[in-house]
Amino acid sequence: MSTATQERPAVQKGRIPTVVRLLVLATFVVILNETILINAIPRLMESLRITEQSAQWVSTAFMLTMAAVIPITGWFLQRVTTRQAYAIAMGVFLAGTALSAVAPSFEVLLLGRIVQAVGTAVMMPLLMTTLMIVVPEHDRGRVMGNVTLAISVAPALGPAVSGLILQIGSWRMLFVVVLPITALVTLLGLRKLDNIGEPQVSSIDWLSVSVAALGFGGLVYGLSLFGETDGRVGLGIGIVITGIAAIAVFVIRQLKLQRTGVPLMDLRTLGHRTYGLSLALISIGFLAMLGSMILLPLYLQNIRGLSPLETGLLVMPGGLAMGLLGPTVGKVFDRVGSRPLVLPGSIGMVLALGGFTQVSMTMPYWQVLGLHALLMVSLAATFTPVFTLGMGALPPHLYSHGSSMLGTLQQVAAAFGTALVVTVMTARSGHLVTDGVAAVPAQLSGMKLAFGVAAALTLVTIVVAAKLPRRTAAAGAQEHGSAADQPTGS
Question: Tell me: domain 266-471, CATH 1.20.1250.20, correct?
């Protein structure tokens, strides 16, 4: 799967290569599962007798596993063919789905989700690496819009899809329905997929892998303990400090490997200003998206008393709007550049999350729908341009490292956002209940504060968006990437 030695297959202008279409379809199916359980959290709490703090780990553990596995995939994809990587990834995902469907306890369900995430983590870099090989540079903006459909829209549609399924059965149906669909997509891919590239022998620094998993996992797990009411805050602080220390060791290790060997993540990607800004904006965007997607089902079902189906239907328009706009945004970006899309998108994110701070027992549902749609449309206007802009700022030899770092931090940010909003909500409502406030008003107050924290964080995206260039030198268009070393202005 090395991109360095492969010639790009001939592709008819204006068409998306079949191999990319198949990988986008498979990636959409597996990433959909990242958020499909969010709408089922109230059901899980009742069925498995767990707290909100524990239930949110069905999503957080999925994201953190992806964050730990994605850095390894660059090494893995070099050692196997495209078909082998596809078969292994989808096979592992199928095994995790089956295990989750029959899970007798929360612990087994969590294990199933982790196995699912391992398969999902391979699909994202496989898609991106293949795309960079087979798609001509001048077509990447348009094709990236379709890739965004899988990477960004699938998580947005997860709660809507799960709402429909939960209407006819228990949370186990979420996995029972996905199982045959995944099997069909797997068989179709194995029949039609061609190998791109040749396997190569390569090495990996397992110390970096271990330290990265310890650092990012410890950071988010420690944060999740802050909202506990049983005196575990001290333990949470200790774990967070340990996680930060492990991340520092990871960074030092990568800097050393950049001089003496092959780093797991080449931090020289951060030396490209446009890529660094894009990385920050996408991370904050995913933090806001997943944080709000955790809070909305809790608000609509626990506070307002809606069913999972009603909740799913309420958030479906926003998810569909994001999906339909993905390819269009890619085409508009090719014509007008980033700022006319990203700056309004960033402002829209702040306005939508700010609006959610006004949730109440009587807020009209059309307002909830409108705010959610505004958030999804704003994210659609942001993700495709920023992803294309950031990757385009890198020279070809850093594509794999840039994609790996982007995918890793995207998942860490999403996990961080999930843990952050649940922690803020739980801590606030817990203090109010202790002071004698009723449970429902206390939880509502906690949700308002959590949305407020998310809105405050997204203010940073406006500043970042204003600093992004309209376009960047097309690194992919330069055979040796010389133009990518200097970010361009507007």
Answer: yes
